[in-house]
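Entry 0007
Protein: HTTM-like domain-containing protein
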Amino acid sequence: MKTSATTPPVRPETAPAFPGTPRWWFRPVPLARIAVFRVIAYLFIPVDVFLTTAWVRAHADVPTDWYAPLLIGRLLDLPTPTHTLVLVVQWALVIAAVAAATGRAPRLLGFAVFLLYSEWMVIAMSYGKVDHDRIAFLVALAVLPTIGRARLRDRRSSEAAGFAMAAVLVTVMLTYFLAAWAKIRFGGWDWATGATMTRAVVRRGTDLSMWTLDVAWLLPTVQWVMIALELAAPLILLVRTDRARIGLVLFLLGFHVMVYAGVGIIFLPHCIAILSILPWERLSVLQRRESRAGLPAVPGAPAPG
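Output (structure tokens):
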């Protein structure tokens, strides 16, 4: 994998490449896109640790006998979480993530964040509950350090960045596709024909969704639509243009916002991984155009000259 200084980072990725082929996996991606997404991903970690999954910290105070490590924890013989271990992992992860967001030592700090967050997830999921909204974010943390340095106004494109973003995109796709497979495998077609969504609305419904209980055909239809869309997830791999990328992200995030509004469930780490699809390099292009026009490139900054 190599970085090319001759490939413009702002050109839409329209070159045909069949998903799964080497050309598709290593299509150069602008390093400016990586720089922006890296900041988003790493700064999300303190939010996740202290707000969205603050309950993981509570495992520091439960009996160690309750710990039933995941397969990876057993294979690597990871230590049993004690009060001290949980606190050390928590604060080391937050400090490393904030430091990594600066872009300094991207490989060293990036791999440290990945290892610490992986251990944080083992601590989180080894007490009887395993969430499926973390895998794409974990893959993102794993591949970001492989790219090396990337700056917000970096005009180069990189095959290493292309592979990293392709890996995240494939994992986002598989999260949806395997969700449909799991529904069919464990619930059979009863998942679509039964009262799955009705039960969810009864248990967790909000003022925005309770009315759906009065429309007999609506929720079963939603169930069929969800399975159909999840089975069609491989089509995600066909996106090429920036406009298609933006449309895909808006559709996926809109779906998750709708689910949250209806039943109060949100897959925030997965949503962060989805943001890797966006052409963030356009922000640097806009800044350069504003600078050439004599406008401040950053709100509040003085105009040139």
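Curator remark: The mean pLDDT is 87. The longest strand covers residues 3-4.
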